[in-house]
């Protein structure tokens, strides 16, 4: 009896599947289920991001506060003082939305920032990763140019933090995947998996 697998079926598995003792590859449906990181991982990531904002504010001169929000105006993380975070996040989303319309009408491309100078300081809104916004607060008694340099430095540091968190998340998922025990009936599932054609 000969078993022939179809050769035109694409391998849709995102992560590599385990191999049974016989050396044949298990189909994706028979492989172990990837377990996502535990719930406390999100809490740890939130704490790490909040701590990172405080560190960035301490490292970058002339920056007095930072806030990360969604494009819908929801607060994700913040390190601010004396402001209403939820109102600021909502106005930041509105500012970028208006800036998008304005730069579109002006034919200058998508906005990279929305900057405002007030009587007692500066505030800038920067798109981050397409889905998030970074709000940077600057101290008074400086020029718009100095604030722009400081704000973009804070943006660069935040992007590095996001990259490190993503790498950590990917490693956690891969670790959870490979630490799962292989199914005891892997070889049996291989012989009875759908998509195989048996010939007598």
TrEMBL record:
Region (Disordered): 1-39
Domain Roadblock/LAMTOR2, chain residue ranges per copy: 49-137
Superkingdom, taxonomy of origin: Bacteria
Pfam annotation, one family: Robl_LC7
Transmembrane segments: none
Classification via SUPFAM superfamilies: Roadblock/LC7 domain
UniProt-recorded name of the protein: Dynein regulation protein LC7
Organism name: Kibdelosporangium aridum
Upper classification of the organism: Bacteria, Bacillati, Actinomycetota, Actinomycetes, Pseudonocardiales
């Amino acid at each position: 009896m000969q078993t022939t697998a179809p050769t035109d079926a694409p391998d849709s598995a995102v992560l590599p599947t385990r191999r049974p003792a016989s050396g044949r590859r298990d189909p994706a449906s028979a492989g172990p289920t990837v377990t996502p990181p535990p719930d406390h991982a999100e809490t740890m990531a939130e704490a790490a991001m909040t701590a990172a904002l405080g560190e960035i504010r301490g490292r970058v001169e002339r920056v007095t506060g930072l806030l990360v929000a969604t494009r819908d105006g929801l607060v994700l993380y913040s390190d601010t003082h004396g402001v209403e975070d939820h109102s600021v996040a909502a106005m930041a989303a509105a500012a970028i939305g208006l800036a998008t319309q304005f730069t579109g009408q002006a034919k200058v491309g998508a906005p990279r920032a929305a900057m405002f100078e007030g009587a007692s300081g500066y505030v800038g809104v920067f798109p981050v990763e397409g889905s998030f916004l970074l709000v940077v607060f600057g101290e008074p008694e400086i020029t718009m140019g100095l604030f722009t340099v400081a704000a973009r430095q804070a943006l660069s540091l935040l992007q590095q933090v996001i990259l490190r968190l993503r790498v950590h998340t990917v490693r956690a998922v891969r670790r959870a995947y490979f630490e799962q025990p292989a199914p005891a009936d892997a070889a049996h599932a291989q012989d009875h998996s759908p998509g195989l054609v048996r010939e007598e």
